[in-house]
Design brief:
Elements lengths: L1 H10 L1 H39 L5 E5 L17 E2 L2 H6 L4 E7 L1 E7 L12 E5 L6 E6 L7 E5 H6 L7 E5 L4 E12 L9 E5 L1 H8 L4 E2 L1 E6 L5 H11 L4 E5 H15 L1 H32 L1 H9 L4 H40 L13 H25 L20 H27 L8 H32 L6 H12 L1 H39 L4 E5 L8 E2 L1 H7 L4 E13 L6 E7 L4 H4 L2 E6 L8 E5 H7 L6 E6 L2 E13 L9 E4 H7 L4 E2 L1 E6 L5 H11 L6 E4 L1 H44 L1 H9 L4 H39 L9 H18 L1 H8 L3 H6 L2
Helix pairs in contact: 1-10, 2-7, 2-8, 2-10, 2-11, 2-21, 8-11, 8-15, 8-21, 10-11, 12-13, 12-23, 13-14, 13-15, 13-23, 14-23, 15-21, 15-23, 21-23, 21-24, 21-25, 23-24, 23-25
């Protein structure tokens, strides 16, 4: 049986290659995911271990996953700066260096940085840590700075330049005295690092009494464990001391976790490619078993057992899976290298420790490839047990119709899918994922998965009627024969088209979801953007806010009529209701800041100790006007009276559902900051001119940006277009696998119809007509799969958009993507037919007629 399997693979080399290609892509994605993350783990581990060589102990915040409120602190934990002296006095401590880090802004004249691009970090240069000077020297004066070498090159900064750096307030000039690199090479993943003296960093960031960590160097003859024990006795509960190796490992793990979305993305698309490939392999082996029925029956006559026939098919599948897995490993390594080079090309070079191909990765890749191939071939293999020796007396061609139970099961599955999606949509109308309720989204996702399965089952019943309609334009004899060839084997055609349906269906789902979300956001902006411009933080740290004096500067700009200030602070809701962001508003300017659809009560009553609540949140907690709700802010319970219940304009819920008096938040904040400033222009003023004057007035604040509704709309379009492009690009691999499936199916069909094709050639069909027949069949299969995918994409894309946004979603149809999909199907059909059509046209007529 082994020799028989090897002979079949060798004698049908094209079929074997195409079968392997159907599995290679999925294995490649899985391999790339593990190689990339393992390489990152090794690189970051070496980088932080090398950087920690100059430090023995690190003192840091006890709960590292808590966030620090305040400028530059939304992503960093900090401890009391007085602990530096406390730590330095501990026996065995040679030195204690404070370290401070927060978001800042490097202002380069004429530079146009993307609003959501890599951030700028301001750090205190301690002379140790994880950086080393490459050129120049370290800063030792308040007006000196160093910058990481990768950013210096990409942003055109040189030693001797004077550049502006902003922290929590106005920008200040600094002289560049050196550049530094990261331990073990690499860059900051596109981020810019600016090193200042500790005092300069503290002043610039307006963080006078806190540090992120304390780097401790012990005396030479002192045990690190002894110092750690002594530190435990003097540190407060909110701080802890760990050895440098532990701190380095934690920091490396944190960075890897931040980049883990690459791993998830690649694994998801690897799974999709494997599922599509499984359809291709299953269909191919089923057709091969059907075509070899006579051969397998003869083997039964010669004494082969049913088990041996099963193994003859499974051995072929195992060999194909093994070879495809090995090739997929190579593809995965190439993908991992490509990802690293792509990141380096966009300025996000990572530390390089070489590619790490672990035994785990090889085992998983080979297991995934072989298991997928084996399971796909299992049902066709067991079908050989139903082949009787009598079948050796006749040529077997699959012409069986569709079994009725497939239609019933598919119909019931479709009903279940619609019911699940309908339930999820109904619940999302009340509360969607945007407001923190992901249960409707989970129901919709499950319904969409079932819908894909239902369409797979129903596709075989749709082949004849739908292809009859699609092929009704066929006027030539060759095209009509191509149409009937696709219709007479509905199960084979359906499975082949399903592979394409999955890939294009997912692309269509993402495109429809993106377009619907985009249309919804743009409509909401139009309905709710009551101001003419908004002043907000320019960088990553939205919660850091902007200086409160900016509102006064904006008010003084010619052409500005009104200014509304908003501030924001995290809060805990009563009971198990979770967390939220409480927004501080001024009653007299709230209409400029927020657009309301309906308000019960009056915002004029909003004052100290009161709150206005969005209706969807009030209904959830059972709140009415006059009720008291307890908000826990900064660890302190604060009961507030409900004086207004409102609906936001735009029919879309907002996660920030609680509005309290602006001065209440300002008093709570240790360093008062505004989250945003809304600006209303003079109706008779030129909007572009006023916007330009605003930007000029705020030139000393590079950490803030002036945004109009047009700017917001463009940002939304660009971000979603980039997302769709990236996802579609990764899904393209599964579409390629599906096209390989069409090629393989037609290639096998040509063998099956050898005698038929020979007779057609004998009665006068030309080679050109034969090619046209195969090509038309291929196009019909491709278009059939594309149409099923588009229908699924429209349905699932709309439902997922509702699950995310809620009742106010605007259903958007991405006509460009749909037209591109249909045109692509025609092109794919033509390309997929090249090899099968060429072989059919070149058949020897006499040999084909004699073929059995």
């Amino acid at each position: 049986m082994l020799r028989l399997a090897l002979r079949n693979l060798w004698e049908h080399k094209v079929r074997s290659v195409l079968l392997g290609l159907a599995v290679v892509a999925g294995v490649g994605f899985v391999t790339a995911a593990y190689v990339f993350t393992d390489s990152l783990s090794e690189a970051f581990g070496e980088a932080f271990a090398a950087g920690a060589a100059g430090t023995d102990i690190e003192v840091r915040a006890t709960t590292t996953d808590e966030q620090t409120e305040g400028p530059g602190g939304a992503a960093f934990t900090r401890i009391d700066a007085d602990l530096v002296d406390t730590v330095a006095e501990v026996e065995g401590v040679a030195s204690a260096r404070p370290f401070l880090q927060a978001f800042g802004t490097l202002a380069i004249e004429g530079e146009d940085r993307p609003p959501f691009g890599p951030p700028d970090f301001v750090i205190s240069w301690s002379g140790g840590s994880y950086f080393m000077i490459e050129e120049g020297r370290a800063p030792d004066a308040p007006d000196e700075m160093v910058i990481d070498s990768a950013s210096a090159e990409s942003r055109g900064v040189s030693i001797g330049d004077t550049v502006d750096v902003a922290g929590a307030s106005r920008a200040e000039p600094f002289n560049v005295v050196g550049t530094f690199g990261f331990a073990e090479g690499g860059s900051g993943f596109g981020a810019t690092f600016i090193g200042l003296t500790f005092e300069a960093a503290s002043d610039l960031l307006q963080i006078p009494n806190e540090v992120n960590s304390i780097e401790v160097v012990t005396e030479e003859d002192t045990s690190t464990e002894e110092v750690l024990s002594l530190l435990e006795t003097v540190l407060p509960s909110e701080a802890e001391a760990v050895d440098a190796a532990t701190a380095a490992a934690d920091q490396a793990a944190e960075l890897q976790e931040g980049l883990s979305f690459f791993n998830t993305f690649l694994l998801v698309f690897g799974l999709i490619a494997l599922i599509v490939g499984a359809f291709v392999v299953y269909n191919a082996f089923r057709v091969v078993v059907t075509q070899r029925s006579r051969e397998l029956a003869l083997l039964r006559i010669l004494g082969a057992t049913r088990a041996q026939l099963v193994w003859s098919v499974l051995i072929e599948a195992l060999i194909v899976g093994l070879v495809a897995s090995i090739i997929g490993l190579g593809l995965g390594l190439a993908l991992a290298i490509g990802i690293r080079q792509l990141l380096a090309a966009i300025g996000s070079e990572l530390p390089d420790a070489g590619l790490v191909l672990s035994l785990r990765t090889v085992t998983v890749a080979v297991a995934v490839g072989m298991t997928t191939t084996l399971l796909s071939a299992l049902m066709p293999a067991f079908r050989t047990t139903r082949i009787s020796p009598m079948e050796a007396l006749r040529e077997q061609i699959e012409t069986r119709g569709v079994r009725r139970w497939w239609v019933w099961v598919g119909g019931l599955a479709l009903v279940a899918a619609i019911a699940l999606v309908g339930l999820g949509v109904r619940q999302a109308y009340d509360q969607a994922a945007l407001t923190g309720n992901t249960r409707p989204l989970a129901l919709i996702g499950a319904g969409c998965l079932i819908a894909f399965g239902a369409f797979f089952l129903l596709a075989r019943a749709l082949v004849k009627p739908l292809l009859g309609v699609l092929g009704s334009t066929a006027t030539s004899t060759a095209a009509q024969l191509g149409r009937e060839n696709a219709r007479r084997t509905p199960r084979r055609t359906a499975v082949t088209a399903t592979a394409l349906m999955i890939g294009l269906g997912l692309v269509a789902t993402v495109a429809v979801l993106s377009r619907s979300v985009e249309d919804t956001i743009l409509q909401v902006l139009e309905d709710t953007f009551t101001a003419d411009a908004i002043v907000q933080p320019a960088g990553f740290d939205a919660l850091a806010g902007i200086p409160v004096e900016i509102a006064d500067d904006v008010s003084a700009v010619e052409g500005v009529n009104d200014v509304a200030r908003l501030n924001m602070i995290p809060a805990d809701l009563p009971g198990d209701a979770g967390e939220t962001l409480v927004v501080g508003v001024e009653p007299e300017t709230v209409d400029l800041a927020i657009a309301f659809e309906d308000v019960d009560g009056d915002f004029d009553d909003l004052g100290p100790g009161t709150v206005a609540v969005q209706r969807i949140e009030a209904d959830k907690l059972g709140l009415e006007l006059g009720d008291t709700v307890e908000l826990t802010i900064d660890g302190e319970p604060r009961p507030v009276e409900v004086v207004a219940i409102f609906d936001l304009a735009g029919e879309v819920s907002d996660s920030a559902s609680y509005y309290i008096f602006y001065d209440d938040i300002r008093q709570i904040q240790g360093r008062p900051r505004d989250s945003t400033v809304m600006v209303g222009f003079d109706p008779e003023a030129n909007e572009e001119a006023v916007t330009e004057r605003l930007s000029e007035a705020l030139a000393d604040y590079p950490g803030v940006t002036v945004t109009t509704i047009a700017d917001l709309e463009q940002t939304v379009r660009s971000a979603l277009a980039a997302l769709v492009g990236m996802v579609a690009g990764l899904l393209f691999m599964s579409v390629v696998v599906a096209i390989v499936g069409i090629v393989l199916t037609l290639y096998l069909a040509v063998f099956e119809r050898t005698r038929e094709t020979g007779l057609l050639r004998a009665v006068g069909m030309t080679r050109r007509q034969v090619r046209r027949m195969i090509r038309f069949e291929s196009i019909l299969i491709a278009v059939f799969g594309t149409l099923l995918g588009v229908v699924l994409g429209l349905f699932c894309g709309w439902a997922l958009a509702v699950g995310i946004v809620g009742e106010g979603v605007r259903f958007g149809i991405p006509w460009v993507w749909i037209v591109a999909g249909l045109v692509g199907a025609l092109v794919a059909g033509v390309l997929a037919a090249i090899i099968p059509a060429r072989r059919a046209a070149r058949m020897d007529v006499l040999a084909a007629i004699a073929y059995e």
